[in-house]
Amino acid sequence: MQTPSGHPVDVTTSARLVVLVSGAGSNLAALLAAHDVPAYGARVVGVVSDRPGIRGLELAQDAGIPTAVVSLKEFPDRAAWDEALTEAVAVFSPDYVVAAGFMKLVGAPFHARFGGRMLNTHPALLPSFPGAHGVRDALAYGVKVSGCSVIVVDEGVDSGPIVAQVPVVVEDADDEASLHERIKVAERALLVDVVGRVAREGLVVEGRRARIGR
């Protein structure tokens, strides 16, 4: 396999990534833009969604990446969905799983299989302002600096060990949309950087502490 510039990509030594998506896939697009660079060290080998017909799946298909959809409404209960999601991801034998705008919490079977190897982003400086409205909550609190975090996913909501963070200054004229757009730019760059470094150097999780390295 070759990059668009003609340089070979060593897929045998690149870390295997499965990306979970629920929407437009802007973080996925950033990872796809990076993964053909030979020195990056990671390659997206599969994309799994909880929703059909989304832009994230189209991006993967356009890039020739296999996809799967595991929709909660197709299963009798959450436990059955958890098992199916775990198996759908396991098909790709990933070294790491990246939640890129994935809007579901994963269950015990997923943690048992991929615990300590799943990364997620959040548009706030955790542990402050976890949950689905981190940008809105930070603005309402009146912070002068917000930002984004990359964490190792655990059983809680945005509660896993923090791998890396980047600050984003809140401007006086910001509303939720304008601040979120600047955070998204920082978030994409941080995710691409962290995933590549983790792929090349490894990830160590010790209690509440996560560090890149072996």
Task: Outline the structure in words.
This protein is an alpha/beta fold and 214 residues long. The chain has a domain at 15-114: Rossmann fold, CATH 3.40.50. 34% of the residues lie in helices and 24% in strands. It has six helices and nine strands; from the N terminus they run βαβαβαβαβαββαββ. It has helices at 26-35, 55-62, 78-90, 108-114, 134-141, 176-201; strands spanning 15-21, 42-49, 67-69, 96-99, 118-122, 145-152, 162-169, 203-206, 209-212. The strands form two sheets. A seven-stranded mixed sheet has the order 3-2-1-4-5-6-7, sandwiched between helices. α1 (26-35) packs parallel to α6 and α3 (78-90) packs parallel to α4 (108-114). The radius of gyration is 17 Å and the shape is globular. The two termini are 29 Å apart. The model is unreliable at 1-12 (pLDDT under 50).
